[in-house]
Q: What sequence folds into this?
């Protein structure tokens, strides 16, 4: 793979340009200061990350924006969010879906990170001239969950948590899964994608098996799941991505055995 040096400078993530008109692919906006300090980072960013990884067909650009934003929110990386919010909108994310993403990640990345992300997102939405009706999804009936699976999940939560922290078990069953996961402002697959991304960003591999299985039940393919981790290596770091790989392997093998 050939790395190149350009006359203009490198990508500054907080100033990403709009995606090109051809297919939602990102068009980085050069930043002379970054190129002056880290020219090798420039080459990796333009040629590898945005020139290759973001263009791989294993995940759609919209999916890549979803998991990138999820990783940034969960990691508290708000300085990098404006450019990726703009890119996400250009890649087909609705403002209401970004709003729902932040709300969802308050539960998985913490309230402080979600609150900080909401403030940054407000600025981007204002600059784009987005109106309230574009940001707030219209009311709709909650999703209907599989009763048998929900009974099993609730029992598992009660067994693992209820005896030690009964109120946490109640919030988990009644609010997190009983309300948040049933909202229709994100599809179940989207919620699973951003949850897996947030857990990977935080190095929470103990929570990954359940949510990776749930993601695949919600429509994520094995190829797409592997690509999520590959993409996230660039945004959360190689160690966290590598730590997630054994989980993927175990889940893939278990699902293959189960038929």
A:
């Amino acid at each position: 793979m050939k790395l190149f040096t350009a006359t203009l400078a490198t990508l500054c993530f907080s100033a990403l340009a709009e995606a090109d008109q051809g297919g939602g692919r990102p068009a980085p906006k050069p930043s002379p200061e970054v190129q002056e300090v880290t020219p090798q980072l420039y080459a990796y960013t333009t040629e590898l990350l945005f020139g290759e990884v973001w263009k791989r067909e294993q995940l759609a650009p919209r999916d890549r924006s979803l998991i990138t934003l999820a990783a940034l929110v969960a990691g508290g990386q708000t300085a990098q969010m404006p450019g990726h919010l703009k890119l996400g909108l250009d890649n087909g994310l609705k403002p209401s879906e970004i709003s729902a993403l932040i709300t969802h990640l308050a539960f998985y990345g913490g309230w402080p990170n979600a609150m900080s992300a909401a403030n940054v997102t407000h600025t981007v939405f204002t600059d784009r001239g987005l109106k309230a009706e574009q940001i707030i999804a219209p009311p709709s009936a909650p999703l209907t969950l599989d009763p048998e699976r929900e009974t099993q999940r609730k029992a598992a939560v009660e067994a693992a948590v209820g005896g030690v922290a009964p109120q946490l078990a109640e919030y988990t069953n009644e609010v997190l899964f009983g309300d948040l996961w049933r909202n229709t402002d994100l599809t179940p697959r989207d919620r699973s994608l951003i949850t897996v991304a947030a857990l990977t960003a935080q190095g929470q591999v103990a929570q990954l098996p359940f949510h990776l299985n749930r993601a695949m039940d919600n429509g994520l393919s094995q190829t797409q799941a592997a690509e999520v981790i590959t993409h996230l290596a660039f945004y959360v770091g190689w160690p966290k991505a590598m730590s997630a790989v054994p989980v993927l392997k175990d889940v893939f093998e278990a699902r293959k055995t189960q038929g």
